[in-house]
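Might you be able to check the C-alpha coordinates below? Thank you kindly.
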Amino acid sequence: MENEKETDPLIESLMETKKKLHEHRAKLPVEEKIKILVQLQELANEIGPSKGKGMVWKIF
Protein backbone atom coordinates (compact mmCIF):
# COMPACT_ATOMS: atom_id res chain seq x y z
CA MET A 1 0.00 0.00 0.00
CA GLU A 2 1.32 3.42 -0.96
CA ASN A 3 2.23 5.93 1.67
CA GLU A 4 -0.87 8.10 2.16
CA LYS A 5 1.30 11.21 2.36
CA GLU A 6 2.55 10.68 -1.18
CA THR A 7 0.53 12.59 -3.73
CA ASP A 8 -0.16 11.33 -7.22
CA PRO A 9 1.84 13.37 -9.77
CA LEU A 10 -1.35 14.07 -11.70
CA ILE A 11 -3.00 15.48 -8.56
CA GLU A 12 0.07 17.60 -7.85
CA SER A 13 -0.02 18.95 -11.40
CA LEU A 14 -3.72 19.77 -11.13
CA MET A 15 -3.20 21.52 -7.80
CA GLU A 16 -0.33 23.59 -9.21
CA THR A 17 -2.38 24.55 -12.27
CA LYS A 18 -5.30 25.57 -10.06
CA LYS A 19 -2.96 27.67 -7.91
CA LYS A 20 -1.61 29.47 -11.00
CA LEU A 21 -5.15 30.10 -12.25
CA HIS A 22 -6.14 31.65 -8.91
CA GLU A 23 -3.02 33.81 -8.92
CA HIS A 24 -3.80 34.97 -12.46
CA ARG A 25 -7.42 35.80 -11.63
CA ALA A 26 -6.39 37.67 -8.49
CA LYS A 27 -4.35 40.04 -10.67
CA LEU A 28 -7.22 40.80 -13.08
CA PRO A 29 -8.76 44.28 -13.03
CA VAL A 30 -12.13 44.59 -11.31
CA GLU A 31 -13.83 45.23 -14.66
CA GLU A 32 -12.61 41.89 -16.00
CA LYS A 33 -13.74 40.09 -12.85
CA ILE A 34 -17.22 41.61 -13.29
CA LYS A 35 -17.33 40.37 -16.91
CA ILE A 36 -16.47 36.87 -15.69
CA LEU A 37 -19.16 37.11 -13.01
CA VAL A 38 -21.79 38.11 -15.59
CA GLN A 39 -20.75 35.19 -17.82
CA LEU A 40 -21.16 32.82 -14.88
CA GLN A 41 -24.59 34.30 -14.12
CA GLU A 42 -25.66 33.75 -17.74
CA LEU A 43 -24.37 30.19 -17.67
CA ALA A 44 -26.16 29.44 -14.40
CA ASN A 45 -29.35 30.98 -15.77
CA GLU A 46 -29.18 28.77 -18.88
CA ILE A 47 -28.74 25.65 -16.78
CA GLY A 48 -31.85 26.41 -14.78
CA PRO A 49 -32.93 29.65 -13.21
CA SER A 50 -33.56 29.49 -9.49
CA LYS A 51 -36.91 30.52 -8.08
CA GLY A 52 -36.91 34.20 -8.97
CA LYS A 53 -33.12 34.43 -8.73
CA GLY A 54 -32.31 33.90 -12.41
CA MET A 55 -31.14 37.50 -12.73
CA VAL A 56 -28.16 38.46 -14.86
CA TRP A 57 -26.58 41.85 -14.30
CA LYS A 58 -27.12 44.13 -17.28
CA ILE A 59 -23.99 46.24 -17.25
CA PHE A 60 -22.81 46.09 -20.88
About this structure: Helices lie at 9-26, 30-47. The two ends are 56 Å apart (CA to CA). Residues 12 and 38 are 31 Å apart (CA to CA).
